[in-house]
Amino acid sequence: MSAKPGAESAKAEEVGKPRVRDRIFETASDLFYRHGIRAVGVDAIAQEAGTNKMSFYRSFASKDDLVAEYLRDQEKEYFAWWDEAIAPYAGNPRRQLEALFEAYLDLAKFKAKADCGCKTSRGCALGNAAVEIPEDNELLGGIVHAYKTEIRRRLRKLARELGAREPDTLGDALMLLMEGGYYTRLTYPQNTGPVAAIARAARVLIDAHLA
Amino acid sequence: MSAKPGAESAKAEEVGKPRVRDRIFETASDLFYRHGIRAVGVDAIAQEAGTNKMSFYRSFASKDDLVAEYLRDQEKEYFAWWDEAIAPYAGNPRRQLEALFEAYLDLAKFKAKADCGCKTSRGCALGNAAVEIPEDNELLGGIVHAYKTEIRRRLRKLARELGAREPDTLGDALMLLMEGGYYTRLTYPQNTGPVAAIARAARVLIDAHLA
DNA sequence: TTAAAATGTGACTGACCGGTAACACACATT
DNA sequence: AATGTGTGTTACCGGTCAGTCACATTTTAA
Description:
The structure is a homodimer. Chain A has helices at residues 9-15, 20-35, 42-48, 53-59, 63-86, 93-104, 107-111, 125-132, 138-161, 167-185, 198-210. By secondary structure, the first copy, chain A, is mainly alpha-helical. Chain A folds into two domains: 9-60, Arc Repressor Mutant, subunit A (Orthogonal Bundle), CATH 1.10.10; 62-210, Orthogonal Bundle (Tetracycline Repressor, domain 2), CATH 1.10.357.10. The termini of chain A are far apart. Chain B binds a DNA duplex through α4.
């Protein structure tokens, strides 16, 4: 099944062969995002990472432990993208919001690895996790909740800085657009779905709350 | 008595003990919606329905078979709600759209059984299924895709009847709101999330496309 | 009444789940 | 040479998954 990629011991370790833990994490993140959390077992992760289950449990206390780290990492990446998108327009909330929704259409590219091979983007890692996480899992559920709430806070804040009438309402409306974009991306390849209309819709909402 | 074997079952249904198949289907629908499809096994369904796995497989060829029926039934229910919401305003697409988004806030009540006990609504059954369905499952994936496309078609049609500029864009924007509402309902109890802003946002979008 | 249809029961398969134990091996430092 | 660390290997645990079997029982229709 898996032939060794010919990497020799000492040098390869430093250059192109990250520590087992990192390989496992990268592999798991990829598999979780593409196939969902429940659908990916620890054995599959270990094998795909070129190691075995025992090494998995030397690095992670449990699967949930890894999932929690995965979710936190996805959140970090997402807000990194966010900050990057609005950075060029600091002090101009209107431009920041527009930039955000225009960049949104390229988000799939930002996330997806080149060799993903998915026909459709898989939308929001955290949001999808909310579907799979059982109700009584407070650890994972809390991570998702905090993430969504931070998005909500940021959008409402931008709406306030914008000087919008009813900034909270505008922020929430914009959030609905974003979340809807993720959700529909699960079904429609890339930007062929309703998400194509997101930037214009955002602009319309913003204008209406400024008039 | 009549020789038709289907007629008698109606009696038992009324009395309070529906046929096993129906009990299984109702129970499964409830469990699938609340906990997700992957999280619910056939054994759990059978037990919760007061029967056993063998009776399950006498009624359904496979779990996927049941899931397909569940999804189709959810779609039917959803569009029944939709038609009911817009019926009073036939010929007035503007009022129909508004009614749709106002009724949306009560949708959770429409779906949820009284004894559900969920802290949060579970949003859209079909949309959530899209997260759990593996990419190569064309049967289930196709059902979800057809459902989303029908929503899109209906919203675009209403936007066209409305006489909106760029009706497809407006329809898609409204769809983003709807889908976003479902998605965020997974995380926020009932209407405490951004979904509370959905009716106003829809109105703003509609107005802007009419001006 | 009687036979057929519907349903219940428990055991079973083979695969997979998350997680663990015991041991072997390579290598880097000292 | 000795030691410790990181890793690989194999087998195993108890549990659950979807799905099937033979057979007993109840319900229903003729």
